[in-house]
UniProtKB/TrEMBL annotation:
Gene3D superfamilies listed in its UniProt record: OmpA-like domain
Protein name: OmpA-like domain-containing protein
Keyword Membrane: yes
PANTHER family registered for this protein in UniProt: LIPOPROTEIN YIAD-RELATED, STATOR ELEMENT OF FLAGELLAR MOTOR COMPLEX
UniProt superkingdom: Bacteria
Cellular component, GO annotation: cell outer membrane
Species the sequence originates in: Methyloceanibacter methanicus
Broad class of the protein's primary localization: membrane
OmpA-like domain mapped to chain residues: 68-185
Pfam families: OmpA
UniProt entry keywords in alphabetical sequence: Cell outer membrane, Membrane, Signal
UniProt keyword annotation of ATP-binding present: no
Compartment(s) where it occurs, according to its Swiss-Prot or TrEMBL record: Cell outer membrane
Amino acid sequence: MRLCGGFGRAGALLGAFFLVSTLSACFAPAPQSQPREYSLGAAGSGHTGAPAARAPAKADRATPLSGSAAFAATAGDVVYFEGDSSELSAEAKATLQRQVQWLKRHPGYRILVEGHADEWGTQQHNLMLGAERAVAVKIYLETNGLRAIPIPTVSYGKERLVANCPALSCRAQNRRVRTVVTPPLAMR
């Protein structure tokens, strides 16, 4: 049976294609909002020492802080590293010790350790360096009392710069690990 001058079969195929593509878009899995997790067996080595850790932000006394804002203000949520290094400085260890104490006082919070690098170097190298830094922080947190909670790590490499300028001070701000806390489901 011939339809409309030979366009019947082509039209039917084209219609089926659009129908399938529309349905596949509706039933496709939702894109993952969680970053890809990297895990390494051990933290890498590098130069010793690091820039001074930033002091935790002072809390406004008029409005009490809660959750991640309280964590950042009380314990500090970022530690910094020397260039091309994943070794924890004394300042970084002091910040991590405050994080351990805060998390012990606030059980149930979940954490994610994000590793970052500056913009110098290849993407692959910076992803690995960010992962090594995140694992170094994870190991420190676990060996200092946080073994009971899972601590996932992720590396963003040079993808999430906080400062982007040619000065060395900008690069130092990007060589960091950030500990992100989320409240338990019951508190949300």
